[in-house]
């Protein structure tokens, strides 16, 4: 690799507060907040909204979408077809 053109990679803890899990990995991301990890060292911590521990695709959970409302809104907006037909 060429020197001085790649960002610095360092150990970072990513924390998913929804699933109450955290994992240590390498990243170029940085944070002012730090956390003490299981090995006793302090690492920058980045809070994420979704990880594989909380995402419905990985957990097998389902997300209910209001598809009927979306279809009706589309038909009202673009005036295609009869609104009573599905």
From TrEMBL:
This is 50S ribosomal protein L31. Gene3D superfamilies: Ribosomal protein L31 (4.10.830.30). Belongs to the bacterial ribosomal protein bL31 family. One of its GO terms (cellular component) is ribosome. Keywords: Ribonucleoprotein, Ribosomal protein. It comes from the Bacteria. It comes from Streptomyces stephensoniae. InterPro entries: Ribosomal_bL28/bL31-like_sf, Ribosomal_bL31, Ribosomal_bL31_B, Ribosomal_bL31_sf.
